[in-house]
Amino acid sequence: MKELIRKIPLFILAAILFGFKTYIVYRFIFGISIESVLQELILILNPLVSGYVIFVISIWLKEKNQGKYLRFMSLLATLVLYVNLVFYRNFTDFITLPVLFQGNNAADLTSSIFTLIHFTDVLLFMDVILIWVISKNKDSIFQFETPQKIAATAVMFLLLATNVTLAEVERPMLFTRTFDREYLVKNIGLFNYHVYDLTMQTKTNAQRVLADGSEIQEIKDYISEEKEGDNEAGLFGAAKGKNVVFVSVESMQNFVLDEKVNGNEITPFLNDFKQDEDTIWFNNFYHQTAQGKTSDSEFLVETSLYPLDRGAVYFTHAQNEYYALPEVLNEKDYTTSVFHANNKSFWNRDVMYENLGYDHFYSQEDYEVTEENSFGWGLEDKAFYEQSIPYLKDQEQPFYSKFITLTHHFPFELPESKASIEKLETNSNTLNQYVQTARYTDESLEDFMDQMREEGLYEDTMFVFMGDHYGISEFHNDAMSEFLGKEINGYEHIQLQQVPMMIHIPGSGEGQTYDKISGQIDMKPTLLHLLGIEEKNELNFGENLFNQHRQDFIALRDGSFVTEEYIYTKSVCYSKESGQPVEVPPGEPSPCEPWKEKVSKELGYSDNIIYGDLFRFYDFQ
Ligand code: GP9
Ligand code: MN
């Protein structure tokens, strides 16, 4: 062994150990899926290449510094890997620069950090320790002659070129058309991905400076071509003049609806409510959020633009010009407000709400938060609604008030005394607890509706209940498939992104189940339609869901999409009929291809509006 170590230059040993370890993490912790031999090859190759690039630099250093460099860099590289891993356990996603610089996200991580750090993680640092020990021994350091140094460096460029070429073969236009970070990491590796991310950051920063508004016309043409429809048909004005209470229901997914735990319904109230004669239920409704989680879902509803694929637009572009729902409603003499019992600067809400035109934001400081009425993330939802009612009553009518709930949030912890149903018994504690906080949420919504009735606010109010994003990530697929009794493939995973969307108009009798493929981007035009407000805005990416001509289609933020016939995700086109990948004869294009074009165009246009702050060049009046 000693002999062997002496024969292999230490930087190569460091690269091999690091590459091998990273591959294990990719494959078994990030759970990166492999569909072909080429993909497997790339996945093995890219961490080795990264390791080689990082460590080969050492040979150009003075002998006494080489050991130091190898020690320091192996620790640093492993830390980068590890921080990504902890982040991934919480968000099933990779870190981007904007996310790193929004302090509040760290708060999210710290609140649940102990569930994210595992004892066995120590194993990840084994090679660092090994390199550390060996490199302390002077004999382990090779002194290279200049030609050898040049040769070793040339090998580095060769390796990099091979990696990039293979990645391009595997995924043409990988760098220009990718909204899915897993794909980037899979093909170029975590470290090159971070370099790519840095380049993107620089590029998008420059985009605002270079924009001149000339692109708006092209986007307008695209929207009017793709989304033309009759706004007068449907339920125009069905809730005219009513107040609106919009509840953004934390982490609620459709899969708990009509499900039971040991014979008890998880959401008995919502199960009845969705079938109520006054409730319009969209049972094919998807969240479209990315790294900005709740704030992304808010942004979708308020602006009918897509959130960004990197970072939270609430942080990165809070100063942009928008023409948001609260602004439109303010013009129609609505009082607009938000109720959310968390720190007001979380997700930069205090700044963004001001910009979007909300008249008032009732945040943590407006609530009485005590030890008895709080746990987990803070004030429990039942107390939250109770304490909100007086504020709600004080508002001038008609009002549009958004409530954002908090209790049903990862890691879904509920004091035993507040749980009304049992936990599940799968291998995921997160999922097991999720059903209990889902039940709590269901009860609190029922109580809230009762209070609204008692206070005489029910009749004149339209209620909207919407799930903000998933609560159970891909990380829990095994447990999910145990609970739901089916395998979770890419197709099922996308179906699990459905969240509740129920619109209740008291006394309207308009209750009905709509199975249109719809999403959060459609909320702004849909709500305005119901309120009988005509918005002269040709720059919404969503559509009024009652519009008969609307295309049955929805794009998710990572480029996945759902149409009447297909579901596309992670490069696989699934048939909805079979739930299995579509079989395409060799040489023929996949039926998902035209939709893919459209999705990438649409997401790109929305991004350009935000990165270029293009609405500053447009007059909405
Ligand atoms: C925080 C709450 C939760 O205020 O909205 O945020 P999330 O982690 O779901 O985005
Ligand atoms: Mn949320």
If you compute it from the alpha carbons, what radius of gyration comes out, rounded to the nearest whole angstrom? 26 Å
The overall pLDDT, averaged over residues, is: 92
Strand content: 5-15%
Shape: globular
Number of helices: 23
CATH topology of the largest domain: Alkaline Phosphatase, subunit A
Active site: 294
InterPro entries: Alkaline_phosphatase_core_sf, LtaS-like, OpgB/LTA_synthase_biosynth, Sulfatase_N
Binding site for Mn(2+): 250, 294, 468-469
Transmembrane segments: 9-29, 41-61, 73-91, 111-134, 150-167
What distinguishing features does this structure have?
621 residues; alpha/beta; Alkaline Phosphatase, subunit A; 2 domains; eight-stranded mixed β-sheet; 23 helices; 10% strand; globular; binds manganese (II) ion
Molecular structure report:
It is a single chain. Strand 6, helix 17 and strand 7 form a beta-alpha-beta unit. This protein folds into two domains: 2-207, no CATH class; 246-550, Alkaline Phosphatase, subunit A (3-Layer(aba) Sandwich), CATH 3.40.720.10. The longest helix has 29 residues, at 63-91. The chain contains 23 helices and 18 strands. It is globular, with a radius of gyration of 26 Å. The protein starts with a helix and ends in a 9-residue tail after the last helix. The mean pLDDT is 92. It binds (2R)-2,3-dihydroxypropyl phosphate (GP9) and manganese (II) ion. (2R)-2,3-dihydroxypropyl phosphate is lined by residues 108, 250, 293-294, 342, 346, 404, 406, 409.
